[in-house]
Amino acid sequence: MRLQWKYSLVINLSVMAILVAFYFFDSIRVRNEMNALHALGAERGAELRKIAENTILDAVEKEIKAARVFDAQRLDQALNKLKREHPDMQNVLNIHVSLNDPRIRSSLLRSKNAGDINLDSADLEQIEKKGATIYAVEGQNATAIVIKYIAVLTGPQSIALASSDLAYESRLDNGTLPYAVWEKAFGKDVYVPEDPVITEEKGRRWRMTDQAKGDLYNLWKQGETLWIQKALSGYIQVLFDVPYIGRSIRYSLLMHAILIVIVGALLVILIDLTTNHLIMKPLERMTGIIQSAESGDLSLDQTYSSDEIGRATHNLVRMLWQLQDSHSKRIDALGQFAAGVAHEIRNPLNSIGMTAQHLKSVFSQPKVSHADIEEAKELLDIVDQKIVELKQTSEEFLTLNRPRILNVEPVNLNVLVDQVLSEFTLVTEEAKVQVIKNYDGTLPDVPLDTALMRQTIFNFVQNSIQAMPKGGSIYITTLTEKIEDEVDHAVIEIRDTGIGIPEEIQEQIYDAYFTTKDATGGIGLGLAISHQIITAHKGKIEVRSKMGMGTVFKINLPLNAEQLS
């Protein structure tokens, strides 16, 4: 798995797990708080209802009865007095009193735009059934209790009815007020619409309202007598301060903030640990490895994690180790190169020095004979020959360190190989080496520098012969093939049945002055120069060899002359 996906997956899953845990514990906390709040609200609601029904309702009904009318100003004063004097009124914020309908007529705190007591059909139904409705006021830490009041203005009066009016109960139950009852009970001063009667107890108790004045009339049957009583009715809304709600909200917000801080801290710790484990420690280990490499202490015998940084660290160690090994090999090759150059220069210089000493002794004689002069000339010829050898050595040295300049022309590769092999006719006979040729007759001409490529092939054939001191076979094959760039290449394959090249030195055989033929006088420039020539032709060389089974050199040369430009 790529590191970025692994890191993202670990972080995201951890964050989700922490958030789910946060939601779980917070929901439990909120549920417990809500249950406690509901229990407290139920207990507190019973207390508030008791205050509304026993204290405020009694005061409102008592004041209306005393005035025998709905006097809003007088009722306001009574409510304010109740607020100041009664101990149960400490948590009362406001009181609204309506008459007949929900419109507010009187208040503890007088307002120009009093508005209405908010009641819907469900609230009205609950008031009729349970006597009160309780709800929370939006935007305030307050609870509203709405109850209905009925203030009796007159004492009960009996209505004398004729025998023909005694069947009035069924009509009252159906909401219709018999005319005889209306005329005897109210006269013509009360406006009663059709179906005005509301049955409270079927066949026994009813009530109706004067739609013009808002007066309430209660009717009930006792024995065979119908009684009527005038009253006023409306709604009382009491707003209570509930500070425990505010405290509960503040406590809930505080606990929520604390939990958020805890979750944030856990996320920070988690991300820090994950980043440290997945990224920082592996990077520190990589930095330590680089520092160890700088001090020369580098080892591949370590264990690495399987993630990307671990693999990158392992690859880095391997690369540094390879660079270190390559550097060591290059230093060794440079030492061999210097030793080879010194060897090639030392012998001619020794000869020149010894010759110079001899010439000095010759010309230091009191009398120099003609024979001495002839000897001196021979010695000077030797010096001149050694100087030519030194010049040739320096030229070869310079050639290894500068690019080859090619004189390219189309060449028949098969003919060129035959020309080189003709130079080894006597050598192969003496060495008991058989040359087996397998040429591709359709091989097109190859763009080559003839002289340089002849030297290259010569070096490879010579090496093959020297690798078979007891005789053997050389197989030379030419062909065409496509390689990686899908371009046609000419191929020369030189295979021998010699002693082979050890695997551990196969990478060094093209290094200058590297040789395994010190006993036979080799100086290690043949393959180095050949490799340089093949590279100058944009070609490639491959070697395959096993000890005791021979060696194969495969040379690829491009057929497209444009590649050499």
Topology:
Elements: H1 3-67, H2 72-85, E1 92-98, E2 104-107, H3 121-130, E3 132-137, E4 142-152, E5 157-159, H4 168-173, H5 179-186, E6 198-201, E7 205-209, E8 215-222, E9 225-241, H6 243-294, H7 308-363, H8 370-399, E10 408-411, H9 413-422, H10 425-430, E11 433-438, E12 446-449, H11 450-466, E13 472-482, E14 488-496, H12 526-536, E15 540-546, E16 550-558
Parallel strand pairs: 11-13
Antiparallel strand pairs: 1-2, 1-9, 3-4, 4-9, 5-9, 6-7, 7-8, 8-9, 10-12, 13-14, 14-16, 15-16
Compressed to H and E, one letter per element, the order equals HHEEHEEEHHEEEEHHHEHHEEHEEHEE
Quaternary status: single chain
Low-confidence runs of at least 5 consecutive residues: 518-523
Distance between the termini: 46 Å
Mean pLDDT: 77
Tell me the number of strands.
16
Profile the largest sheet: 9 strands, antiparallel
Query: In angstroms, what is the radius of gyration?
Result: 61 Å
Number of helices: 12
Q: Summarize the amount of helix as a percent range.
A: 40-55%
Alpha-beta content class: alpha+beta
Overall 3D form: rod-shaped
**Content of β-strand:** 15-25%
